Amino acid sequence: MTRIAVVEGDGIGHEVIPVACRILERLHPEYEYFKVDVGYGRWERTGCPCTDPDIAELKTADAILFGAVTTPPMKDYQSVVLRIRKALDLYANLRPVKNDRFDIMIVRENTEGLYSGIEELTADRATTLRIISRKGSERIVRKAIDLARQRNGLLTIGHKANVIKSDVFFRDICLAEAKAAGVPCNDRFIDALSLDLLQHPENYNVVVTTNMFGDILSDVAAYLVGGLGLVPSANIGDHHALFEPVHGSAPDIAGKNIANPIAAVRSVSMLLDHLGDSRGAAHIESSIRQVLNKGICTRDMGGSAGTREFGDALIHALRSAE
User: Fold this and answer.
1) Mean pLDDT over residues 293-297, rounded?
2) Shortest CA distance to 174 belongs to which of 113, 132, 205?
3) Where are the domains of the chain?
4) Residue 159's beta-bridge partner residues?
5) Other Cβ atoms closer than 10 A to 168
6) Class of domain 1-90+237-322 as given by CATH
7) Intrachain domains 1-90+237-322 and 95-229 with the same fold
8) Contact in structure between 237 and 90 (CB atoms under 8 Å)
9) Which CATH superfamily, name and number, covers 95-229?
């Protein structure tokens, strides 16, 4: 039995994940689904956003469908997302950005860098330790190399080695691994890369970079396809996998039935690909295109459909194709 953990999280996660889950259940009613409650809302109710039993339960899933969680800027609040990524060792964050002109996969190291969680705050100074390890660098670039081979594409290494010594370390490891694997590659400073990727996206295929740079670069790249409401992601480890929209919890629009569920639904597509159902994944993408081609879209795309109504249209498109 394939077991899927469903985590709505906070904010618009409570609206977009139910839509995504309807799609997944329509395609795979035989899966076992179970909910796990983590996030800021859980912290407000109980004083703890994520417990050890929650982590243990997530580890029992074959895949996790994750919404969005709010992380308040409080020194005593532990990021739920960072905790889950570390506990499940989800070291590769895959963020596709594609349309009819280009197909880019941004491969972000997901467990270290500036998001390592090693920090110190005093009255006079705040310190965040940036960790770039050989193990972390080697395994993320090897994942990127595998993807570049599958896609028969160029590997681009994003870094800031002209300023940051830890990026010299990261760049050199990536270049050595790519050379040993015989994969064509180049490297770019992350600031220049961000601009050039927007201006010439067709020149890029697989991009590998460190944690925070990958986070920023993928958000910037979402501009190319219409914004964060359209972009999914996968968090992959050797034993676990979590799929989530790139966007955050968006508390300013939560509960208004206006959030775009496409990123969450596309995360289901990535989930199905991971589980070996490429047909179901393609079915989802074609249904999204069919609905959009009819002019049905949410407000961020210039339409008037609500979150639930867009989900209804997707279900209808799936039924029509069966």
Assistant:
1) 95
2) 132
3) 1-90+237-322, 95-229
4) 189
5) 15
6) alpha beta
7) yes
8) yes
9) Isopropylmalate Dehydrogenase (3.40.718.10)
Q: How far is C-alpha 298 from the geometric centre of its chain's CA atoms?
A: 21
Output the CA–CA distances (angstroms, integers) from residue 313 to 12, 143, 227, 291, 316, in the order listed: 19, 36, 21, 7, 5
Beta strands at 126-128 and 119-121: parallel, antiparallel or unpaired: antiparallel
Q: What is the pLDDT confidence band of residue 116, given thresholds at 50, 70 and 90?
A: confident
Q: Looking at 19-166, which runs of residues are DSSP E strands?
A: 32-35, 63-68, 92-98, 103-109, 119-121, 126-128, 155-159
- Inter-residue contact 261 to 20 (CB < 8 Å): yes
Tokens of 111: 């467990």
Cα separation, 33 vs 237, whole angstroms: 21
Q: What whole-number distance in Å separates Cα of residue 271 and Cα of residue 243?
A: 6
What are the tokens at 302? 């210039």
Q: Is the predicted pLDDT of residue 76 greater than 80, yes or no? A: no
**Has residue 322 got a pLDDT over 80?**
no
Mean pLDDT of the chain: 95
Q: Which residue, 200, 246, 255, 201, is CA-closest to 219?
A: 246
What is the predicted pLDDT for the residue at 112? 94
Question: If you write DSSP's letter for every residue of 4-53 in order, what string do you get?
Answer: EEEEEESTTHHHHHHHHHHHHHHH-TTSEEEE---SHHHHHHHS-SS-HH
Tokens of 63: 């895949």
Q: How far apart are CA 308 and CA 316, in angstroms?
A: 12
Is 187:218 a contact under the CB 8 Å cutoff? no
Rounded CA separation 70/27 (Å): 30
In 160-219, beta strands by DSSP E: 185-189, 206-209
Residue 103 CB burial class (10 angstroms; 0-12, 13-18, ≥19): middle
Nearest Cα to 94, choosing from 213, 254, 208? 208
